[in-house]
């Protein structure tokens, strides 16, 4: 998570150079920490990396994988909206909470924050067999 490590904290955990090297190595999608989940990682910084990755032809995924996915729903909503504001293509919510499963209330809060109730319920009710 970078906390307490000067060499890996904040914007040093991933840089534009890292993004470039990943894309040159063949990555189609670049994993980025969700704003507010790693010390020093802001929405503005991740937005900058998203724009850069897109300019190189790559997609991005922002991820909550620091156990914050087990936080209260207000925190999850805030992180979700910051991720959406970065322009990321894919959202990832980790699996803390109940062993190996993200807290259902947080999955719902995240989904509603980024796409609203109507689209969230529609996705929940849709059959995979259609």
pLDDT under 50 segments (min length 5)? none
Helix content: 40-55%
Largest sheet, spatial ordering of strands: 1-2-3
Number of domains: 1
**N-to-C CA distance:** 40 Å
Number of strands: 3
**Overall spatial form:** globular
Order of helices and strands: HEHEHEH
The CATH homologous superfamily is termed Aldolase class I
Q: What share of the residues does DSSP label as strand, in percent?
A: 5-15%
Average pLDDT rating: 90
CATH topology category name? TIM Barrel
Secondary structure class reads alpha/beta
Classified by CATH, the class is Alpha Beta
**What's the story with the biggest beta sheet?**
3 strands, parallel
Radius of gyration (CA) equals 15 Å
Which CATH architecture would you pick? Alpha-Beta Barrel
Tags for this model:
130 residues; alpha/beta; 3-stranded parallel sheet; single chain; 45% helix; 4 helices
């Amino acid at each position: 998570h970078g906390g307490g490590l000067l060499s890996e904290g904040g914007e040093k955990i991933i840089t534009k150079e890292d993004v470039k090297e990943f894309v040159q190595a063949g990555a189609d999608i670049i994993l980025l920490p969700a704003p507010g989940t790693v010390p020093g990682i802001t929405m503005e910084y991740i937005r900058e990396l998203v724009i850069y990755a897109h300019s190189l032809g790559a997609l991005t995924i922002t991820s909550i994988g620091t156990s914050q996915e087990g936080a209260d729903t207000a925190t999850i909503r805030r992180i979700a909206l910051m991720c959406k504001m970065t322009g990321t293509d894919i959202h990832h919510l980790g699996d803390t909470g109940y062993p190996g499963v993200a807290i259902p209330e947080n999955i719902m809060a995240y989904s509603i924050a980024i796409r609203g109730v109507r689209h969230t319920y529609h996705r929940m009710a849709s059959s995979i067999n259609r």
